[in-house]
Amino acid sequence: MKHILLLLPLVLSAAVPQQLRFAINGDPKMFDVLMVAESNSETIRYLTAGVLLRVNRTTDVPQPELAESFQVKEGGRAITFKLRPNLQFSDGTPLTAADVERTLRRALDPKSGSPTGDTLRAGDTAPEILVANPREITLRYKAPKPGIDRLFDSVGIAPPVQTKLPPSSGAFFVAEYQPGTFVLLRRNSHYFKRDAKGVQLPYLDSIRLDIQANADIALTRYQRGEFHLINKLDADSFDRLQKTQNNSVRSLGPSLDPEFIWFNQAPAKTLPEWKRAWFTSAAFRHAVSSAIRREDMARIVFKGHAHPAVGPISTANRFWVNAALKPPVLDTKGGLAQLAKEGFTLRGNVLRDKGNHAVEFSLITQAGKRPRERMASLVADDLKALGIKVNVVTLDFGSLLDRISKSLDYEAALLGFENVDADPSEEMNVWLSSGAQHAWWPAQKTPATAWEARIDKLELAQAAEGVRANRKNLVDEFQKIVREEEPIIYLLNPDYLVAVSPSLKGVQPVVVPPQILWNAEWLRFE
Amino acid sequence: MTRPATILLALVVVLGLAAPSLAPNPYDHQFRDMASASPQPGFPMGTDDLGRDRLSRLLYATRVSVLLAPSAATISVLLALLFSALAALPSRLVAWTLSLANGIFLSLPWIFLFIILRSKLSLNTDPLVSVTLTFALMGVAGWAIPGRAFTASIVEMKDAGWLLQARAAGLRPWRIATAHAWPHLWSLALAQFRILIPAYVLSEASLGLLGLGVADPMPSWGNLLRDLQHPDVVQANPWTLAPLALLVLVMICLESLTPSRKAAL
Questions:
Q1: A393 at interface of B, judged by CB pairs closer than 8 A
Q2: Which CATH number does the domain housing residue B99 bear?
Q3: What domains can be seen in chain A, in order of their start residue?
Q4: Tens of pLDDT, residues A113-132
Q5: Distance, in angstroms, between B148 CA and closest chain A CA?
Q6: Going by fewer Cβ within 10 Å, which terminus of chain B is more open, N or C?
Q7: Which B residues 98-117 touch A at CB under 8 Å?
Q8: Would you give the DSSP letter of residue B43?
Q9: Chain A residues whose beta carbon lies within 8 Å of the beta carbon of residue B233
Q10: Quick check: A497 and A233 in contact, CB under 8 A?
Q11: Would B203 be classed as within a structural domain?
Q12: CA separation, residue B257 to residues B2, B65, B145, B197, B246 (Å)
């Protein structure tokens, strides 16, 4: 009898089904770890593909994974990995430096069109790959590569042969895929990682990702207990869920993702010179920024689940954010005074420039994105206090993208970024004046202003700087300039909201993708 | 039923036209401390998520939708009648061309035409101009659906005994068309008109996703109906159903006013 009682906890523990279920909003486009280009495939890649190193989402420090050690050399030009012994793919075939080399060469082959290759190349140049022995491999660039170690967080090691459901080098492998219905991942019994007691990870037997495009239905199924987590909740759903299942929702605080507006400063044919003169004036941009009631926006649009943004780096990014900066304060009078110095006059309820043009501009944003539509309405209403008329225009995403990146036929835009990494190099393509995504004036041949030239220098310098403290100083100065010039007027950082079943243990949700799933191999049910 | 329906319809039209006098608040004023408020004194139907008075917005929306959706439906029905009348001609080529045009109009993805229209319009286009053009385009693009019904009806009439009798009696074509064919088509035209109105109201709501519907802050039944996308929100705030209730009421009234084919004859 005593023995039976002693065994009871084990029996009960074994009885808990170790299958995690959650929804993804569409079919994954492919299972080839090197060809991933959309979020659903990205989630599956993260769960199935082994990587040489992983950036710890809680400490932001790269840690060895398939590599037992790695070393950045030659001032950031080269990196050497030493693989763990006896690594295997999920089908039991050995994983060696030759597999790593083959993966890297396939990714770097321009013919493959691999997005991973784009990340690994320096411009059009591929790094040199040197295999010293079956456990050691080195990559060498001609010049220092920004964040050379962090790059490998997203380079999954591919199996020798690509099949429909290829074997994996990570914690899980794709066992079954029913298009439009679900993707089933099973635990990789050859995975190298073990816990402190020597128990092989992952704890979960399987993960079922149900394909559910409708977020409302996914929420209902979560409430019924059919799903165990929702990796991103909007504010309305969070509040609704909080009323019924308070112990399962969590606010992770401000996200890394900012919402912002900017003015078109490019010399576009469709933009009259007098309007361009407004938009290139820092005083005009400051005045607009100072008239926006960010607290109202957070309270009304995000039900209080958002915080006024300080700049390009969120306060959630504790190490890199410039702590000296505070969110812009509401100061309509100050804004009007700045405008007056620039020759603007408020006559009646209409602001007029030196040429007697009434100040009016269109603000485009993404149609169907309710929070952005709402924010644009609030901005339009706020700017009435300055005598500025704003025409809010919602556009389908394709048209919007075309206007802001190709035709440049727009005046102002309200959008947001979804940052996938906390590293400040993440937005290089936005801040370099030559960048294709340099929002207010893309792909400049030479920097249009002295402050843009300074930002270019700071961005390149921080990317090449190896000493973290020195790099921080450069990043701080960059943030200060952005605040002084406000080429992008930052509005809010919405809070990151998630829902997790209380029965799921080992959860350490973070604001960096893939949020709840970043330590999937440690998750278990009790 | 005809009289109450007429009175109700007239009431809705008057409410819409008199919106500036009847609305307790400006339709675009944001009472930010009252966002998503329940019905209460000062806001008989509560406020939306930006704190705007729902009743005032509904009254102004009625003005936009009650004028523009029937106007677009009228354009569609008139164009359909015009083109379908060609089916009465003896030429096979005309009938074939008409059928082809009808098929093309029905099968074309008109959404692209609306996207092109939006791209050609200045971003600072007055919302009223934008919405008028949108409804006008909907009216033109929408002729094919009633057109098919009218053509079928006219082709059927060509072989009718009463038509042969009218011809044999020496009646002129114009007389046959106005005194004999028109009563047959009238009830069908009214039915098509009635069907098109809610279709255009809802299409306008969908076009809002392209930035072509009624632009915020101007309200319309279409963009007010977008608030109904989340069933649990509606359950918690049943007064958000008011625009839908008004639309259904107008549809019932129009249905009641549509004479049956038998009565028309």
A1: yes
A2: 1.10.3720.10
A3: 14-228+501-525 (3.40.190.10), 259-495 (3.10.105.10)
A4: 888 888 888 777 899 999 99
A5: 32
A6: N
A7: 115
A8: B
A9: 236
A10: yes
A11: yes
A12: 6, 19, 21, 14, 17
